[in-house]
Amino acid sequence: MLFLVMAIGGFYYWSEWPWLLRLIGLLGAFGLVGAIILQTTQGQLAWNTVKEARMEVRKVVWPTRKETMQTTMIVISVVFVMAIMLWALDGLLGLIMRHLLGQ
C-alpha cells in the first residue's frame, strides 16, 4: 500500500516531467505492486477467484435476441399496466380525499 501511495505521490511530485513519462512510471509501479501481491497467499487466493469467475462466465447460457426482445416487451407491458393502475388508484384516492375534506 505504501508503494502505491509513493507512486501516486511521485506522479504529482515530478509534475514538470512529460505526462506520458509519468504515466508509464505510474503504470509500471502498479504492475510491480501487482506482481508483489501475487506472491502472497491472499494474492494467490484473489487470482484464483478471478480465474474461477471467468470460467463461470464462460459457462453462462446467454439468451437469444428473440428471448431478450420478448422479455423486454413483457417488462414494458407490465410497467405500462402498473402505471395505469397506480394512476387510477391515485385519482380514486384523490377523489375520496376531496370528498372527505368537502372540496
TrEMBL record:
Gene Ontology cellular component annotations, sorted alphabetically: plasma membrane
Gene Ontology molecular function: protein transmembrane transporter activity
BP-aspect Gene Ontology terms: intracellular protein transmembrane transport; protein secretion; protein targeting; protein transport by the Sec complex
Keyword Protein transport: yes
Keywords: Cell membrane, Membrane, Protein transport, Translocation, Transmembrane, Transmembrane helix, Transport
Transmembrane residue ranges: 20-38, 74-97
InterPro entries listed in its UniProt record: SecE_bac, SecE_sf, Translocase_SecE/Sec61-g
Protein's UniProt keywords contain Transport: yes
Subcellular location field: Membrane
Domain of life: Bacteria
Cited HAMAP family: SecE
Annotated function: Essential subunit of the Sec protein translocation channel SecYEG. Clamps together the 2 halves of SecY. May contact the channel plug during translocation.
Family: Belongs to the SecE/SEC61-gamma family.
Complex formation: Component of the Sec protein translocase complex. Heterotrimer consisting of SecY, SecE and SecG subunits. The heterotrimers can form oligomers, although 1 heterotrimer is thought to be able to translocate proteins. Interacts with the ribosome. Interacts with SecDF, and other proteins may be involved. Interacts with SecA.
Protein name: Protein translocase subunit SecE
Organism name: Candidatus Kentrum sp. FW
